[in-house]
Design goal:
Length: 317
């Protein structure tokens, strides 16, 4: 996956991203005769000189193909950056709505009415700091709350059953004749908070992994689409080469003298196109296999086009 360049990362808002439309491979702008540069893509535009005797049609086609390949890469980078900004803004919008809802609920109160003014608390005599709380006071503080697990039961991950009539000792520690230590409320709150934090981190890690998975899957399908476009363009080029070969043979049958190098070029042009397209398709399919192995998902294997099948049938025949 190519890195996003700095001039695209400079767009910090969704409205700043300049997106480019997807131009199909069959568009006349992909050809040498009908080539038109995309005004939204600021890459180098190929210079096509028909008066240059050393520049062949194949060289001009390579220039146009490289230009559109670079343009498609930048279009994919802009789309990826747009999707990331869209996801970030949606997440920020959700958090903002949750905060507003929480603020409204806090102002309304439990009964739905406006928040009442706080009452002035009564003055109560302060207790001495050096007087330890009695057993009866501890029982009143605990009230109806169920006692938390002791440290030993928490470590062994077993149910902590208190002894009858004793809230600071459990049956497991009594049977093992070990000291039964309970965490205080502050430590217990810290432990619960740590568990929630670990759970949230795991959820975020899972979301990030799913995001990477979907990005790799999208890249796989884009490469598959690019492979189909390559094969379709190769079929058109091969058909054009066959037409030129037939014209040359027709002129030769009428007695026109055809140079040997030109005749050899027309005879091998279709085969060269087929070999070149096959090499490019193989490269794309290797990239698809690497993405599939990296992501570990199960996708349909790369389809071999009718065009490439016909090559091997003709060779075997």
């Amino acid at each position: 996956m190519s890195a996003i360049p700095s001039h695209i990362l400079a767009w910090k808002k969704l409205s700043e991203v300049i997106r480019m439309e997807q131009i199909p491979a069959g568009d006349p702008r992909h050809t040498v005769q009908g080539f038109e540069a995309d005004p939204l893509f600021h890459g180098p535009v190929p210079r096509i000189d028909y008066n240059d005797p050393y520049e062949q049609d194949e060289d001009r086609l390579k220039k146009v193909t490289r230009y559109w390949a670079a343009r498609d890469v930048e279009r994919e980078q802009r789309t990826r950056h747009y999707d990331e900004l869209l996801a970030a803004e949606m997440q920020a919008s959700i958090l903002r709505r949750e905060a507003e809802q929480a603020a409204k609920e806090g102002m309304a109160g439990p009964s739905g009415k406006g928040k009442e003014a706080p009452k002035t608390p009564r003055r109560t005599p302060r207790k001495a700091a050096n007087v330890p709380p009695s057993d009866s006071e501890e029982e009143k503080e605990d009230g109806d709350e169920a006692p938390p697990s002791c440290m030993e039961c928490l470590r062994k991950r077993i149910a902590c059953v208190p002894q009858p009539g004793k809230k600071r000792s459990c049956m497991a520690c009594y049977k093992r004749k070990i000291r039964c230590d309970f965490l205080d409320k502050t430590a217990w709150a810290v432990l619960e908070g740590s568990k929630k934090m670990v759970k949230s981190i795991r959820e975020l890690a899972g979301m990030e992994k799913r995001r990477e998975y979907f990005q790799l899957e999208l890249k796989w399908y884009e490469l598959q689409h690019f492979s189909f476009n390559l094969q379709w363009t190769g079929e058109l080029d091969a058909a054009a080469a066959d037409f030129r070969l037939l014209q040359m043979l027709h002129l030769k049958s009428q007695g026109l003298d055809i140079p040997e190098d030109l005749e050899e070029r027309f005879c091998t042009e279709c085969l060269n196109i087929e070999i070149r397209v096959r090499e490019r398709v193989d490269t794309v399919e290797k990239s698809m296999d690497e993405i599939q192995r990296e992501a570990g998902f199960s996708l349909p294997s790369g389809e071999i086009s009718r065009f490439t099948n016909s090559i091997w049938k003709e060779k075997s025949g």
